Predict the structure.
Amino acid sequence: AAWEKQVRLSSTPRRTNGFSVLVTGAAGFVGSHCSLALKKRGDGVLGLDNFNNYYDPSLKRARQNLLSKHQVFIVEGDLNDGPLLTKLFDVVPFTHVLHLAAQAGVRYAMQNPQSYISSNIAGFVNLLEVAKAANPQPSIVWASSSSVYGLNTENPFSERDRTDQPASLYAATKKAGEEIAHTYNHIYGLSLTGLRFFTVYGPWGRPDMAYFFFTKDILQGKSIDIYKTHDQKEVARDFTYIDDVVKGCLGALDTAEKSTGSGGKKKGAAQLRVYNLGNTSPVPVGRLVSILEGLLSTKAKKHVITMPRNGDVPFTHANVTLAFKDFGYKPTTDLSTGLRKFVKWYISYYGIQSKTRKGSQATGESG
Ligand code: NAD
Ligand code: UGA
């Protein structure tokens, strides 16, 4: 009963016509930022996360603490727990689901392929099964990935480009998610919007991502690997700042149509959309490293190597015309500005003495 009360309180909107949003992966990087942004504008938010240990779970707990200060409650549970999901939808008439829970990371798929199948395919299907049976049926916005473009050589990538050459199992599961969404839209009238994020970075980010562990390794004086392609070109990413991605997620939620339901009048006519959410200006990894060196006032020990065949793609570059047209998405943060904000957060979160601010030697993590 206390649990139900918390669930209801967290998910009740505080503005007129506010949403009631289930955010999966709410203790994650993108999920925690989106949950806060929704709550701050008066929507009701309930989080779901399994707090797995793919990366340091204490960072997920710290995000959870931050959210709880803003009255966002996270239910600890797995996407594959059908009875739990059904119970949540029984208690709360969610208007929307922002589905961000997934096994992320491209290279880890070579170590633990099953975790991608379990969360990104089975878990997604389980969520859709529960959502289709819910009354009302929520509109669903979910995270796809720029990785679906795989070895596509069109530059920039637009939503109509081919996505039949995934370079990693991660990418293949994200592509599968888009196809699964098509079937649930077609048969059950669920409104579904897929967002292809492009290498998102920022405060409270993911320790498994290059910008994050490069910062750590540079501060600790460890050498970092910088990948080059097999034809010795620089690898580039369309690094996208978290606040821009959050605006895109909210824009997609705001313009999502209602699900029509399989028995509805507009049977089969519910919305199915896919958008790129990138920064539109790819930056070589070498440039990312030199920005970090400047911000940390420390030279990196660089080790330039030919990219192992590990799921990485040579470049990403988003065309965001469609997201701009449909919900005004316009990225505004360049990589230097965004990394400055990340480094500031990193230094304060890990309690590191900043060379630049205090004039003393960086000491590495305090634990
Ligand atoms: P993240 O790992 O920080 O967040 C995902 C959260 O989901 C984690 O807190 C994890 O504990 C939770 N989770 C994983 N599997 C679960 C399951 N089976 N049940 C319940 N919870 C589960 O990752 P993120 O960077 O915030 O990514 C959010 C989404 O965006 C993911 O779907 C990811 O694939 C996608 N994406 C991210 C990026 C990026 O650069 N960050 C780029 C493209 C796509
Ligand atoms: C990121 C996320 O990790 C994925 O979850 C997400 O789906 C993907 O973005 C996406 O946009 O779809 P990635 O771009 O590979 O994947 O991000 P990082 O792992 O942070 O790598 C960034 C760049 O650094 C890549 O070009 C990679 O090749 C390079 N890199 C990585 C190195 O040069 N050295 C390393 O040791 C690691």
Q: What stands out?
A: The mean pLDDT is 95. The longest helix spans residues 113-133. The chain is about 40% helix and 15% strand.
